[in-house]
Amino acid sequence: MSDLTIVFISLSGNTLSFVKRLGLYLQENHGIGTRTINIKELKHETFPVDDNYVAILPTYLEGGNGLDSGNVEILTNPLGDFIKAHDNYKRCFGIIGSGNRNFNNQYCLTAKQYEQRFGFPMIGDFELRGTISDIERLAKVILERKAAFESQS
């Protein structure tokens, strides 16, 4: 299988930590290298992504409860802008959300909103920095979803 591209945004460092550990796990256990695109470092620049990729993002919402109020995305908007630009959403085979389960209905809500907005599936979630079990579980899902997506192309 070819290398894996991961497009993500990390604000507090939790998602960055997860992406780094996921990359190490994929290299050590599957011989797969990762190319990462950290949207935070781009300063609102966009460019076409030539590879199929998985997106990973945390949830930051403005107030409320995630049901009838407070489901407005804040801070992670540059990732949505990047995915939309140049039709990059067409190459995304899935999104993974992260968050804090203490926020109940808001947990991973941004990833669910991207799923609806762009039409690619939410393929998993993890809490905060994620555990090794999350990495193992999501690596399997990512590789299966990537293979299925590429066989359809």
Automatic annotation (TrEMBL):
<feature type="domain" description="Flavodoxin-like">
    <location>
        <begin position="4"/>
        <end position="153"/>
    </location>
</feature>
<dbReference type="InterPro" id="IPR029039">
    <property type="entry name" value="Flavoprotein-like_sf"/>
</dbReference>
<dbReference type="GO" id="GO:0016651">
    <property type="term" value="F:oxidoreductase activity, acting on NAD(P)H"/>
</dbReference>
<dbReference type="InterPro" id="IPR008254">
    <property type="entry name" value="Flavodoxin/NO_synth"/>
</dbReference>
<dbReference type="Pfam" id="PF07972">
    <property type="entry name" value="Flavodoxin_NdrI"/>
</dbReference>
<dbReference type="GO" id="GO:0010181">
    <property type="term" value="F:FMN binding"/>
</dbReference>
<protein>
    <recommendedName>
        <fullName>Putative NrdI-like protein</fullName>
    </recommendedName>
</protein>
<dbReference type="InterPro" id="IPR004465">
    <property type="entry name" value="RNR_NrdI"/>
</dbReference>
